[in-house]
Amino acid sequence: MYTELRQQFEEFIRLTDAEFEYVSSFFQTKKFKKHSIIIQSGDIVEYEYFVVNGLLKTSQTDEKGKEYILQFAMENWWVSDYQALITHEPSTFEIECLENVELLYLSFSNKSKLCSEMHNMEYFFRLKATSGFLNLQKRVMALLKNDAQSRYRELFEQYPSLFQRIPKSLVAAYLGVTRETLSRLSV
Amino acid sequence: MYTELRQQFEEFIRLTDAEFEYVSSFFQTKKFKKHSIIIQSGDIVEYEYFVVNGLLKTSQTDEKGKEYILQFAMENWWVSDYQALITHEPSTFEIECLENVELLYLSFSNKSKLCSEMHNMEYFFRLKATSGFLNLQKRVMALLKNDAQSRYRELFEQYPSLFQRIPKSLVAAYLGVTRETLSRLSV
DNA sequence: CGCGCGATTGAGTAATTTCAAATCTAGTGG
DNA sequence: CCACTAGATTTGAAATTACTCAATCGCGCG
Q: Tell me, what CATH number does A131's domain have?
């Protein structure tokens, strides 16, 4: 269960066994059933989560009940309401399990501690933050430049497996169209 | 000219005079006239830029000549084509001065060096990356949830000064609507 | 005074949404 | 094994929204 975590770190940094053992002592593990809500709108957020197994979504719902998906998180992704985590303000997102999931979780204070004790880890998380930043840049440009059709194709090409795992209505909520419109795309 | 840079760092970290002098030795300074192109699509990107003074835009233009703006960068913002900077692939963005600007610039390798030598700086840039990430999250959610009207209001409330400094057509290209549509918003 | 850029307005068109209904599908219990 | 049901997907039609293209307006500057 910690194997995936170690691989995650070793994509960018090198850790001795002892170091990794120390690092992993900051994490705890938990399983959730499909449909569980990890973070609810209004919650104070204390943890961020590394997905060992399963699939989750981060979303907001407007007054009319329409859902908008910020992010799907699958294996080896990190997920939380980072805004709420960092500011200690109540969450504005909901994070829900779309499958049974296994998570490793790390508290904000433990992350700070890890980063300040190990330059390594600070580096790792800088790169992670940067890569999240770049992914969102792509997303913003796609939302500005591309119509629903090509946003769909792009997502499909990048994460074909996603489409086996979730209903199309959620894809629509991620792409920013209604499920009816998505269904009408010739693809 | 380096005062602003020091303030920028000291929002998050503490630096002695000697440390700051060392850090700032990694930066160089340059002025550009309005309309100058700092980075052109296709360029290999070597630097990131800290805006001391002035205003720039980062944008892409599609086949039909329509422009889409990823970011405006004003005083105390960092700007570059980070994707290109990190991957060493040719830039897909254009960065243009909307006013006369004064920039401090830092090469990718110098940033790496700074970050590896000073845990401090690694920390600073982790926080910067994180805050950029959070800003883009807000932007994505606004693009999904809000219509042009409320995106306009939101931008206006957050950066009222921007509207004194740039033509509305650029605001439209940032919000993801045509300038005609923007002009028709009752606001 | 007139040029040129930016902003606005009008009219027709295209894309997307909304609301409603029909169809399909996978899983459940008899 | 089959009928049933809930959820998911598709389809239809009308309404809305934004877009395109073209023309006009307004203003600052040479």
A: 2.60.120.10
